[in-house]
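Quick question: what would this complex look like in 3D?
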Amino acid sequence: MKKYLLKRLLRLIPVFLGVTILAFLLTGLSSVDAVDLKESSSGGVMSEAEKEAMREELGLNEPKAVQYLQWLKNALRGDFGESYVSGKPVLVSFCEKLPATIALAALALAMTVCLSFPLGILSAKYQNTWADRSISLFCFAGNSFPGFFTALLLLYFFSLKWNLFPVLSMGKGWKSCVLPAATLAVSMTAKYTRQVRSAVLAELEQEYVAGARARGLSENRILFGNVLKSVLLRMVTLLFLSAGSLLGGTAIVETIFMWNGVGKMAVDAVSMHDIPVIQAYLVWMAAIYLLLHLIADLLMGALDPRAKLEGMR
Amino acid sequence: MKKEQKRKILFYGILAGALLLFAACAAHLAPYDPYEQNLELSLLPPSAAHWMGTDRYGRDLFSRILSGVRVSIFSALLVVAASALIGTLAGIFSGWLEGKTDTVLMQISDIFLAFPGMVFAIAFSGVLQSGMTGAVVSLILVSWPKYARLARNRVLALKHMPFIAAARLTGNGTWKMIRRHILPNLAGQTIVTAVLDIGTMMLEIAGLSFLGLGAEAPSAEWGAMMSNGRSMLQTAPWVILAPGLAIFLTVLVCNLLGEAVRKTVDQG
């Protein structure tokens, strides 16, 4: 196990370096000059000489490769520079905003689990009945529904029409979290219910289930006693994978509900060309995503040693 | 069963074809000019004259939805076709040559796979600031690795099969073997993935436009239309409802078609 873990970690290094290179290359794509941006956001007027001095100070006159190495050295120490717009260290604002995004994702995940486990199991147990079909229909529709449309519909009905939840999110207690989390949960439930259903169905075809049936155990006992127990770890693994993509999907929802998390921070930074913030967002999101994948892989390896062998090669 | 599947594909295929047709002749079908502003007609609810109502600038929503079909469908098709082509080529290279080429190409694809969801697309198209082009390019960059992985694994599995060795012995060149023996064996899975991807890409393009990173203001792109109508949610919900339902239904047709194709290929 240790050897496997080490091997997986080693393989992550070039990927992570690649992520940093990509994130850094974004600076070169931007059409807006960093110094000009700093000038306009500080409100002052700088002479050309001052600007040149600032360029020198920021290392913008060095060749790209040197700039990258310098940037990487700082980034590995946690220093992503200062925001061009607010002037605050990027890492500080990122760490301030990450908990809000994690809270949102966690609540969405909890909602998803509460919805999709019962629905998926129900769907598998009563395969090809009207219950299964209507759940499938819901999943299909949910997969085709744009997240921002879900968000706006929820806002329209729950906030504007029935006045149950606040329109804008932050600082209004637990209630403010419900609608954005529900938006994320709708699309995730649609995907995850299908996965639960097919995992349970696959397990029900195992020979031990036929054996248990032959011994006269009740269907419910087999389903809840044996089948679910062995499906559970696989479901948790899949959940880790979904959690990663959930983090990548929060930007739109956070923007609509004015939820002050990293997704909204990134969208704001993009509109203001605040490159250091965008870079930190890219690197950190990739790091979190890779970590979640690693955990999922390790769980998978614990589940099925063959998968581990596959990963060793 | 097989017959039923075929009928399903035909049915959804016709639906999708109808959408393409709409896209192609939107300009002739639209009752009004989708860009003509008339502030006297601002925010009218749906009526006989304006089936879906009008937006803030008095533009006819039905005409705008019709001309939006083109943007959504063509950009999604472009993303899927380009990423499937690039990915499959890279995957065949990688699997056929193995060794260093394989390691490097797969390493690169891993890098693009390391960004969750729309994170990369938001950052890239945001920094590029070139509207729809940026959105399309960023989505191609994120989605080619999927096809590359698929093609590579398939090639690796096929390469050592007896029929490939036989083909080699009879003196076929590499290119001919790939064309005659590898590609046909690869096509099914790739097509399924591609068709299922169209709906997803439509959603992502609309999402990027919604954030202001795709289509720009006067354009009748559905995501952008919804973003512009956000502030009128309470007073004129039809401004949101029309493009929202348009996206939903179009994506639904694509997904249904994809699902039917998947089932057929899986069984066949």
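Answer marked as accepted. Chain A touches chain B through 49 residues (CB under 8 Å).
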